[in-house]
Amino acid sequence: MPATMTPLPSRSADASGFRIEVAGSPEDIESTWREFERHAVGHVFQTFVWMQSWCRTVGAAYGIVPRILTGRDAAGRTSFILPMGIRKAFGARVAGWLGGKQADYHGGLFERHTLERLANDPAAFSTFLAGILAALGEIDLLHLVRQPAVLEGVANPFLALPSWLNANSAHATVLEPDWETFYRARRPSGWRRTDRKKEQALAARGPVAFVVADSTESTDRLLTTLMEQKRQGLAQLGVPDMFAPEATAAFYRDLARSSCAAGPVELSALTAGGDIAAVSYGLRHRGIYYYVLHSYDIARLADLSPGRQLMYRLMQREFEAGTRVFDFTIGDEGYKDQWCEITTALWDSELAMTAQGAVLARGYRLAEAGKRRIKTDPVLWQKAVAVRRAWLGWRGSRQPRRAA
Q1: What are the structural domain ranges in the chain?
Q2: Cβ(76)–Cβ(18) under 8 Å?
Q3: Which residue, among 250, 366, 327, has the nearest Cα to 44 in the 3D structure?
Q4: According to the CATH classification, is domain 176-323 in 3.40.50.300?
Q5: How far is the C-alpha of 358 from the C-alpha of 187, rounded, in Å?
Q6: What is the pLDDT of residues 124-154, one digit of tens each?
């Protein structure tokens, strides 16, 4: 874990007609942020509640110092909010988007006209970038990851920096015209028959119900189940428990609890006979449902595909709610090909400010290229899964046994 850094003082800078103000925490600009996110171009991962939970859990645990940049035009209107931070990596000061591995899309929030100007006017972006760097202060490297190539139809201006493809893409589908037509178009008749048989088999175990958490108690129950089911599923793939770092588990718990009254998180589940068969941790923002985390009872119900059954109910419900897009987010799992007609390339960008930053940037590029090669080569991917599974088994065998 990187050493904790001393919080930096706030400052201001000018950038292409914008006045940039720097905040040291989301709370410093809460009212501005909450109002701006209602209409700004961006994703749920850049909303106030999401970032607040992340900064006080994962960000704090890894010593990341927030440098949240707010740009205002000559009239004082908010033009952008860039949730950035500075961390230590191999002795270098690295600036980048806040959100870490938990944010499927990294970036900022933009007023549409501002975004279009920065995307289409290289001189404006150059001046804008200079203002950002001045506001960030002394750094060795600007390292921006998991950036969508397009933001609501507008090219991402940060890709004007030296950029390369991230190891993962993201996938989504437009919900039209109605659930039944949509479902039939994507599931041939034979598969639909299989779906019906599995639904009947699950119902034979007891009454099946779709439930949504509506209290702290039900939120905690579903989240605890999701974490345990996810842990078991990842172990079969040779992937370490994603919730093992306490800060990660604390983030998802804090965000879910913050959303009990009003927030982006919705925890839902499919139950059979009162038992939780599958769980979904979804997010909503401006007409998009983000299908972020999902799990199912792999030990007892894997052959009945309860996770898929829950997904069907979620999609049907989102059709009825008038949701525009069902976003499967980051990851190139094969099942997404059947449902998604939208593939979004994600890009990493860099700007080295010192020789030390240039060396680190090269290391990041090589590592990402290696991961992408493994993930796109079936043979290499299977070998990687086998190695990870063996490593997890070895590590597990060395853990001290609990007393009976």
Answers
A1: 12-168+345-379, 176-323
A2: no
A3: 327
A4: no
A5: 49
A6: 999 999 999 999 999 999 999 999 999 999 9
Q: Which residue from 265, 286, 243 is spatially nearest to 50, judged by alpha carbons?
A: 265
CA dist 46 and 107 (Å) reads 7
Q: Which fold has domain 12-168+345-379?
A: Aminopeptidase (3.40.630)
Return d(Cα 160, Cα 225) in angstroms, integer.
43
Model pTM above 0.85: yes
Per-residue pLDDT reduced to its tens digit, 208-240:
999 999 999 999 999 999 999 999 999 888 888
